Amino acid sequence: MIPGPPGRLRGVxxxxxxxxxxxxDPLSLSYRQPGVVLTDRFxxxxxxxxxxxxxxxxxxxxxxxxxxxAGQDLPWLxxxxxxxxxxxDRFVGRHAWLDRALREFRVLLLDQRGTxxxxxxxxxxxxxxxxxxxxxxxLALFRADSIVRDxxxxxxxxxxxxxxxVLGQSFGGFCTVAYLSMAPEGLSTALITxxxxxxxxxxxxxxxxxYPRIERKVAAHYARYPQDVDCARRVADHxxxxxxxxxxxxRFTVEAFQSLGIMLGAGxxxxxLHHLLEAPFVRTSAGTELSDAFQEQAQNLLSFxxxxxxxxxxxxxxxxxxxxxxxxxxxxRAEFPQFDAAKAVAGDAPVLFTGETIxxxxxxxDPALRPLRETAGLLAARTDxxxxxxxxxxxxxxxxxxxxxxxxxxxxxxxxxxxxxxxxRGLRTWVTDEFEHDGLRAGGPRVLDRLLALARGEA
Length: 459
Fold this sequence. Notes:
Blueprint: E1 2-3, E2 9-10, E3 31-33, E4 36-46, E5 56-66, E6 76-80, H1 97-101, E7 106-111, H2 132-139, H3 144-159, E8 164-169, H4 171-182, E9 187-193, H5 203-224, H6 227-241, H7 254-258, H8 269-277, E10 281-284, E11 287-290, H9 292-302, H10 308-313, H11 328-333, H12 341-346, H13 362-365, H14 373-381, H15 391-395, E12 401-406, H16 414-423, E13 428-432, H17 439-442, H18 446-455
Parallel strand pairs: 6-7, 6-8, 8-9, 9-12, 12-13
Antiparallel strand pairs: 1-2, 3-4, 4-5, 5-7, 10-11
Helix pairs in contact: 2-14, 3-4
């Protein structure tokens, strides 16, 4: 262990002092942004918590405290990012919900295993594990159960054993429900926003509920921007009749174009999608082509290079028994023929965008995923998933819990969320259509303020 700032420890794994890119660099110290003091924190945890003496990995977290309270003994709030596969938000100063949290908490922004500055899991690093079978076995350790055990190891080091408040956004909320199932003694309060999972639904159930919600979001977008109906049809027709490869090597298919509808789950997503579609074509000496500007924007939105775990383990977060997920989103989509872009273009129907769904073709089109397609297939075929939630323990819950449920959340089914809310003893919900799935980010301090009030019986 290498000492960090006074009173804190940072774990290191195979640290090479000549490599300043490796977590554990002793030059990482506290630093300031407007109104906040930040400290880089590093921890070492078992790769497999079932083998605590075995291989270890690094976790990175950024500690944040209000600059005028940096020397005070404050309660801790752990933030669990949505995803899976994304590192914690990189705030500048006291942005969004962080401002509200810093009024009373010392905040830990954790890069969950495999993300951000924690030990990575990407096309570049996974071959170090071996072939696709070994890689799939490795990635099976990157679900909510392992993340909760990571959090408990970190908590014991950070708080000295005292319980902390956990704020879970989206997949971070899934992890929080797993936390309530596995280690409620580690929690003083649990706050969940857009992330109450179905306790026993298979991935097929999740996507059968999702596609109708996605269709509603697309219809609402076209009602707001009717000019986008023709534009989307023109782009789809072009992609059906041309082989388009984006500058980064991404094969831009019509299905990839449809997947840009993932933006519609955010509060400003419809507007951003419209801006993308404003001028997708340009006239050239060779005829009409997709403009460089449009292609540049599309590749930035489509590439998984910065978050490959999102694609690799996405459906596994719904694995709870011996049933494989078996590319659920792709199979279930076939039950909704209105999403077939070729049929839409051939007729007079609008082209429907899709949403938060992962498909096997992504591992052919995206150069960041292409080397991992066999690994992804093995994960999809896996039949040894273990339950992530404990209904009996949740029914006896004693931790104050509050959850924001967004009325027509595109990513997490509100019906599933409300059934889970009824299954967790003492959980209080705030059901709202004021925000979309990104309410925690878009709502500034309001969402966190409301959840704290609910958990404390003040609202």
